[in-house]
Design goal:
By secondary structure, the chain is of the alpha/beta class. The strands form three sheets. It has a five-stranded mixed β-sheet with strand order 3-2-1-4-7. Strands 10-9-8-11-12 form a five-stranded mixed β-sheet, with helices on both faces. Bound molecules: zinc ion.
């Protein structure tokens, strides 16, 4: 299917901008990544630099870019194509991202929620290739999801569908950036895994992580690393996190009866240590017939799901 046509995928997160040139088969030909730190003011500048760098690379190689897809961590209105809500990246709200990118690459550009992009990547080129009904869940700084329904990205009436991280799992829980209380994200996102670990460490000094309980030194990756070396405390934190995510996944399986649930995002560096408690909780809570038929797996494309998905969604939208 690779006919020399090139598509661009851009994945903007709260901390990095990733951009790639991808062929029609979903293979990455060039990729670039830029840290944007915690300063929202530099997000658009970082995005512009990444897009320009790839545009120039494509032009040197005489690869015409057919179209581009940009993923952003927020609610993208399907009608206005603007980002309406972005608790983890407020700088993007109301910005016409597609116009800004189209001005640089001179081709059709679409903007989509980042988890929707990654879901489309896993569906077309990754773990869920060949499936029809798929839920992709990204656990990172926030928790998002993309739903593939009967082979198509399901957007809902405004384009906001898939806000899995804002499912209420604890009615008396902590306030969430979305305005609700007790969302899954307030318990199981990367920063909240760290918060829970830190709170427990002040009570339990036996873990090898206790010296890292100071702000800034504890990360979800570090907890995963310690768990892999057998630290009981880190294993317990991941087990609890998996159980909370599993409760929400069981609800989604009962609601949508998917063929597959794919788990991705930075926190999934923990691999089976997180996946196994999720699967166990789903078996406890979802209808047995639906749980048995639904495979729950780790992402195949990892951190590249977003850029590949963006390029493939542009390919399938604009031709
Ligand atoms: Zn929320």
């Amino acid at each position: 299917m690779d006919d020399g046509t090139i598509y661009m995928g851009v994945d903007v997160s709260a901390t990095t901008v990733k951009a790639a040139l991808v062929n029609a088969d979903g293979e990455i030909c060039e990729i670039t990544q830029e840290a944007i730190g915690d300063d929202p003011g530099v997000v658009l500048e970082g995005m512009r630099r990444s897009v320009e760098r790839l545009r120039d690379r494509a032009s040197e190689r005489r690869w015409p870019i057919r179209s581009a897809g940009v993923g952003v961590p927020g609610l993208v209105n399907a009608r206005t194509r603007r980002v309406e809500v972005a608790p983890n990246l407020p700088a993007l709200v109301k910005v016409d991202v597609s116009a800004a990118v189209a001005e640089l690459v001179r081709c059709p550009v679409l903007v989509e929620n980042d988890a929707n992009m990654a879901a489309y990547g896993e569906f077309t080129c990754g773990a869920a290739r060949g499936r029809s009904n798929v839920v992709y869940i990204a656990v990172g700084t926030g928790i998002g999801a993309g739903v593939i329904c009967e082979g198509k990205l399901y957007r809902g009436s405004l384009g906001f569908a898939g806000e899995f991280g804002h499912m209420t799992v604890d009615p008396e829980g902590l306030p969430c950036a979305c305005g609700n209380r007790g969302c899954l994200e307030t318990i199981a996102s990367g920063p909240n895994i760290v918060r829970r670990a830190r709170e427990r460490l002040f009570r339990d000094r036996s873990s090898s992580l206790s010296s890292l309980a100071l702000p800034g030194e504890l990360t979800p990756e570090r907890i995963a690393t310690e768990a892999l070396t057998g630290d009981d405390f880190s294993l317990m934190i991941l087990e609890q996190t998996g159980r909370w995510i599993g409760i929400a996944v069981a609800n989604v399986i009962n609601l949508l009866n998917p063929d597959m649930v794919v788990l991705g995002g930075g926190v999934m560096v923990a691999g089976e240590l997180l996946l196994n408690p999720i699967i166990a909780e789903v078996k406890r809570r979802a209808f047995a017939a639906m749980a048995a038929q639904c495979e729950i797996v780790a992402s195949l494309l990892g951190g590249q799901a977003g850029v590949i998905g963006g390029a493939m969604l542009a390919r399938d939208t604009f031709g």
